[in-house]
What we know:
By secondary structure, this protein is α+β, with helices and mostly antiparallel strands. The chain has nine helices and 14 strands. Strands 6-7-10-8-9 form a five-stranded antiparallel sheet.
Amino acid sequence: MKCLDIKMPSDFEEAYALLNSQKKATIIAGGLFLRLQKQTIPLLIDLSDMNLNYIKEIKDGFIIGPMTTLRTIETSNLPSALKDSVKQISGVGTRNLATIGGSICGRYPFSDIDNALMSLNAHLIFYKSGKTSMRDFYHNGLIDKDILIEIVVPKPDFSMIKYYKKVYTDFSLVNVSLAGSDLAIGARPKRSLVVENIDFNSSARKILEDVEFGTDFQASGAYRRALAEALLEDILKERKAFYGS
């Protein structure tokens, strides 16, 4: 990636004006995936000076700033599904640079973080577009360029994510996240799919019977299905032990 200019705004109004000043102006979060791209970006907008690295606990959940690093997420008291979703993302050095906002706005099909947020039914607050659900944004994006200003995450009694990787720190072949009674299945390898209000009296196989798993160069759909069923079975056992029934 080649950058022709970089600006560090001090507030959202300035950042939004810069973002819309040029067609290819781009927000930089952690910048890890961005730097690997083979393109020239006329203007990068760095939000590092805007104090957006924070986690605030509220009555029913948490509010997270978009520049909060994955390492901060990992060491926080956020719901288990979200904390555990970042633990095998590269090394600690990478997690000290990568941000939750960058992960969300990338809308990556393989993302463990996005899948956890989908199951948690998190909501996003954008500067101009306002509030939208993580699920809607993940699948549909936004019509106009905008800036993510906060992530609102509910506080469930129980949440858990499990994923399978061929090698530690690699991208997941499949990931499964449960929060409350909502299940998200990601890296299928298509985008995450949410199954709401699952029946806890059903088997993992039954719960996942209508979920489509695709084949790519990493794994077959049948293999991904078998992995997802095994991971979900483990989660259901953990949930049963948590509630003592």
